[in-house]
Amino acid sequence: MATTNISMFILPIVLLIWVSPAVVSDKCSPHEKKALLQIKQELGNPAMLSSWNASTDCCTWDTFRIECSNTKPYHVSQLDLHGLDLPGPTKIPPSIFNLVDLDELFLFEMPNLTGPIPPQISNLKKLTILYIFSTSVSGPIPESLAQIKTLFSINLSGNNLSGTLPPSLSSLPTISVIFLDSNQISGPIPESYGSFVSKNLVTLALSHNKLSGKIPASLKGLNVDLLDLSWNKLEGDGSVLFGAEKKTEDIRLAGNMFSFDIGKVEFGRNISRLNLKHNRIYGQLPQGLTKLQHLTRLNVSYNQLCGPIPQGGRLQGYFPIDASSFSHNKCLCDPPLPPCK
Ligand SMILES: *[C@@H]1O[C@H](CO)[C@@H](O)[C@H](O)[C@H]1NC(C)=O
Ligand SMILES: *[C@@H]1O[C@H](CO)[C@@H](O)[C@H](O)[C@H]1NC(C)=O
Ligand SMILES: *[C@@H]1O[C@H](CO)[C@@H](O)[C@H](O)[C@H]1NC(C)=O
Ligand SMILES: *[C@@H]1O[C@H](CO)[C@@H](O)[C@H](O)[C@H]1NC(C)=O
Ligand SMILES: *[C@@H]1O[C@H](CO)[C@@H](O)[C@H](O)[C@H]1NC(C)=O
Ligand SMILES: *[C@@H]1O[C@H](CO)[C@@H](O)[C@H](O)[C@H]1NC(C)=O
């Protein structure tokens, strides 16, 4: 009687363990496994994902592309599909947005990845790193990105994104790095980009787009290590981007229509790269340029500058700064250009 009772009690447990050994020991939760298998299917079952198999723990499938957290509660923390061969145009697999515990998402160097970045991206409420670059994704940058309060680094460079810059990105509390360069983004730079909530913003790269309009005066408040606005159609008073108080090391404004008196600009002392070529900047180069002890690159060619080049600091005889750094202006003179008359 007693024996029967015990076996009646144990048998179902033994059966349960035996029937689904994976479920008991899996780090991967059933909903994550389901989402990953759907992703595989949505990508057209690429050969590179042949190890993604329903009968095993997804945390063991492919440690190159799937990373799981080390501590409980276990979750899929990183999905990296970069360089995956897609046989033809493929949309961002919608089941990615069911992996709600992802910390890092990498979709880059996938030329056949097409279609928009769906607003459902904001389902990924814990995302810190979002890299979707060197793909063919198109359409606008979803406004909903600003709802992912954990974002630290965004790289959406080298896609076919269009529309305008979402003003709300400035509200991301811990954003540090923003690359949106080399797309088809148009319209103005939002005023809000002069007052990022994050104290840690170090990079803002918006180059090679179709941005236009006057630079907002509010950008006086933008203070980053790297600011790249080059090769757009921006106009107005770019002098607000400078200031003695700024920490900026690398500032690139080349290939726009900025128009301001460079003589009134105060340069931050940490500037090492200054690229202002191909604009409509006028006036006389300020003496402050000779005080820049870290200057390694300088190009102010193709503007409307005039008068003597200040002598000293790194403006003369500091390779690769040479005559070509100053050429094609209205009437600049003195070394490394010919002497003023
Ligand atoms: C999954 O793995 C099992 C055991 O390793 C194997 O028998 C099965 O064929 C695999 N299924 C697929 C779809 O690859
Ligand atoms: C992209 O898809 C095209 C077909 O549309 C195919 O010819 C090409 O090889 C694919 N490229 C890659 C990198 O998979
Ligand atoms: C961002 O993407 C570009 C490709 O367009 C790449 O060159 C660059 O290294 C990336 N930057 C980071 C920080 O990932
Ligand atoms: C990029 O989008 C434009 C329309 O906005 C389209 O004409 C062009 O073919 C697209 N290019 C690529 C590489 O997808
Ligand atoms: C210049 O760089 C130094 C060292 O990285 C840093 O401590 C300092 O705050 C920077 N200067 C300004 C004006 O931010
Ligand atoms: C400055 O830019 C001009 C125009 O693009 C280029 O020809 C020249 O080589 C550049 N010089 C330096 C030192 O960067």
UniProtKB/TrEMBL annotation:
Superkingdom as given in the UniProt entry: Eukaryota
Record's signal peptide: 1-25
Keyword Transmembrane carried by entry: no
InterPro entries attached to this UniProt entry: DNA_repair-toleration, Leu-rich_rpt, LRR_dom_sf, LRR_N_plant-typ
Gene3D superfamilies per the UniProt record, alphabetical: Ribonuclease Inhibitor
Keyword list, A-Z: Leucine-rich repeat, Repeat, Signal
Any one Pfam family match given in the protein's UniProt record, by short name: LRRNT_2
Occurrences of domain Leucine-rich repeat-containing N-terminal plant-type (ranges): 30-62
SUPFAM superfamilies per UniProt: L domain-like
Protein's name according to its UniProt entry: Leucine-rich repeat-containing N-terminal plant-type domain-containing protein
